[in-house]
Design goal:
38% of the residues lie in helices and 18% in strands. By secondary structure, the protein is an alpha/beta fold. Strand 2, helix 3 and strand 3 form a beta-alpha-beta unit. Helix 2 packs across helix 7. The chain is globular, with a radius of gyration of 20 Å.
């Protein structure tokens, strides 16, 4: 009898399908696995054991191979979509293929949570923005994210699936994903008068926001998944340098930087904005573990 009850409880659990089982998604899988049946899409079969160890059932599929996605139809009650668009081209064919696969059967997901990017806002001259600001993507990378958001919202309106969007800025994690290599190389940053505001979120906090958006996200709603920091890029680099005992980066005018840095790095220095995160606090009930970069560095100490 006890065994039957356990089996019934397991069968009654909602199922979550994670698409894009990278670092952020893997941080929340153990928590989800205690509450849901978790399946995780993985492109490389060699990664199946790592996902099983976290509590997920791996599903081998590739968003660049439409024929491999048929098995995803009707597989889960909801989707956590963390897969990025391709690195080139217009639009997001990966999201388009995913949504087409999900619609192959009558059993559609009831909920989708998607990690987008704050890059969709483009350059705003350092102004404060909330989620009502219109997208003004300045790069192909950001335009692909705008396309993905539009497809997901249209899918939600067409099918009744509840779609929530988390717009994430630069993701970091303690000593990982900090600009230590650039500081050690002595890469320059902009002069104070030319500098841009940047936005940040700790990977653990972003993973937790996925869970909060799953339970509390409103249909079609976007959320700035950013912390409370309001740092210019040079000040951010100085803060990290001081903490790790590294030299502060040299400061150069924008024209001089063009000869020292690659185009991708320069593109991040061409956009300046500060983002309100009131929605994640008031609507999702988020209490960030790392509310600022300074708080993270203090915790490392």
């Amino acid at each position: 009898m006890k065994r039957q009850k356990k089996q019934l409880l397991k069968q009654s659990k909602q199922s979550v399908l994670i698409v894009g089982s990278g670092d952020v998604a893997r941080r929340i899988i153990p928590w989800l696995a205690q509450r849901f049946r978790v399946r995780a899409v993985v492109r490389n079969p060699d990664e199946r054991a790592a996902l099983r160890a976290l509590g997920a059932c791996p599903v081998v599929a590739d968003l660049d191979r439409p024929e491999s996605l048929r098995r995803l139809a009707g597989l889960a009650d909801g989707i956590i979509h963390c897969a990025p668009p391709p690195n080139a081209g217009e639009g997001d064919p990966r999201t388009r293929r995913l949504l087409a696969a999900l619609a192959l059967r009558g059993s559609l997901p009831r909920r989708i949570v998607y990690i987008s990017t704050t890059g969709i806002y483009g350059d705003c001259g350092g102004a404060w923005l909330d989620e009502t600001a219109p997208p003004r993507p300045a790069t192909a990378r950001a335009r692909r994210r705008v396309a993905a958001e539009a497809m997901l919202r249209a899918f939600g309106q067409r099918t009744g699936c509840q779609v929530s969007l988390l717009r994430a800025p630069g993701i970091y994690d303690g000593a990982e994903r900090l600009p230590l290599a650039r500081l050690e190389r002595g890469d320059p940053v902009l002069l104070a008068e030319d500098d841009v505001y940047t936005n940040h979120i700790h990977a653990d906090d972003l993973a937790w926001l996925l869970a909060l958006a799953w339970f509390r996200g409103a249909p079609g709603r976007a959320y700035n998944a950013t912390d409370d920091s309001a740092l210019k890029m040079g000040d951010y680099f100085d803060l990290v340098a001081d903490h790790f005992g590294l030299p502060r980066p040299p400061r150069l005018a924008r024209a001089a930087l063009a000869t020292r840095l690659n185009p991708i790095t320069l593109s991040f220095m061409a956009e300046s904005r500060r983002l309100h995160n009131r929605r994640i606090c008031h609507e999702l009930g988020a209490r960030l573990r790392y509310p600022t970069v300074g708080a993270t560095l203090a915790a490392l100490a």
